[in-house]
Amino acid sequence: MLRKRWLQQGGHWLKRAMPGYCAFCLAPALPGQGWCASCLKDLPWNRHACEQCGDPVTQGQSRCGHCLVEPPAFTCTQAGLLYQGAIKELLHDFKFQASPRAGILLYELMRMTSPALTGAALLAVPMYPSHARERGFNQSYWLAKQLGETLGTPLVKATRIKDSFSQRTLNRRERAANLAGAFRLEAEPPEHIVIIDDVVTTGATGHALASAALDAGAKRVDIWAVARTPLGKG
Ligand SMILES: [Zn+2]
Ligand SMILES: [Zn+2]
Prior knowledge:
Elements: H1 2-8, H2 10-16, H3 37-42, H4 65-69, E1 77-82, H5 85-97, H6 100-112, E2 121-124, H7 129-135, H8 139-151, E3 155-156, E4 158-160, H9 172-179, E5 183-185, E6 192-200, H10 204-215, E7 220-228
Parallel strand pairs: 1-7, 2-3, 2-6, 6-7
Antiparallel strand pairs: 4-5
The structure holds zinc ion (2 copies).
The site of one zinc ion has 8 residues, from helix 4.
């Protein structure tokens, strides 16, 4: 019971966590990892997901209804976890407090759930320049940089040329319209690139960025994120 409470309060405990101990419950961690076996098992895994957009689907279903009817510009999404509980806390600490410990844990979780194909180059989701200056930290770029160094995969860059107002209150279609033409690639990318993001919410950002990459000459674009917000819950 106590462990569950710690797990839900991941963010607070994280700040006290020490290397060698589980970030969630402070028990000894698995060798070389940031968590114990029990907390790892209790994380909100995205077990049955649409192979195209990563949204949870019924076991045995390969694609969700949205992707069957109106497929997005990207081919596959790998998001091993759901944006819930301890993962939501971790992502929040990482995004808004630039917590390096949260970043390392999220990077390790991404490595555990890496996609079958990691592409010829990685592409971080860019922030609009003034937002980047305000925040001083782009979590997608940080993850892409670490993954690129580990995998020996180069990064390609895109810029956000259109500011979009908050996406939070918009539905799926409105988000797509809001983001149309929002990105531009700085150079012609290789044929297969993988977008790196922290959380996939509706897939609208991935769709807009993948469209820009395809326009710039890529032949296939995938997405690799830490977590997916189940539609209708985020
Ligand atoms: Zn633990
Ligand atoms: Zn889908």
